[in-house]
Write a structure and sequence with these properties.
mainly beta; binds zinc ion
Length: about 140
């Protein structure tokens, strides 16, 4: 079977985000969790934003959330293609600090997006790039 080329840009893997992308490859969305105060820290940073501890562990989250806000892209950069698509800020249930992650939708008509909508994190295999990307789909 021929592997279809993937022509859209992909995130860059760097030493600081390596645990994150290794988790995504296993279909697990990992967020640094503070071992001192228990708070979740997204986007990742070398120290906890609540207590400044550097004792953080990449920890799996539940994998779902609600739409805080969104945008429907009808005409994006040509390399992204496949318009329209939705770009969503998803608020996660993990607490005490509110966690919001950014991602694109898949498997739905983005015109159906609405604030408060329940969504889950899904994983898209990209065989030609040996890469896995996360997306948001209706829960
Ligand atoms: Zn902390």
């Amino acid at each position: 079977m021929e592997i279809e080329p993937y022509l859209r840009p992909l995130p860059m893997k760097e030493p600081q985000n390596e645990p994150f992308w290794e988790g995504i490859a296993r279909h697990e969305f990992l967020v640094p969790k503070c071992n001192n105060c228990g708070d979740w820290n997204w986007v990742p940073y070398p120290a906890c934003r609540t207590c400044l501890s550097e004792d953080l562990t990449w920890t799996k989250i539940a994998g779902h959330g609600t739409v805080m806000t969104f945008s429907v892209v009808h005409r994006g950069p040509p390399t992204f293609g496949k318009e329209p698509y939705g770009t969503v800020l998803l608020e996660l249930p993990e607490r005490p600090r509110s966690l919001v992650i950014l991602g694109n939708t898949t498997g739905m008509n983005p015109e159906d997006l609405h604030i408060g909508m329940r969504m889950k994190i899904v994983y898209e295999e990209i065989p030609s790039e040996d890469f896995v990307m996360y997306r948001f789909a209706p829960a």
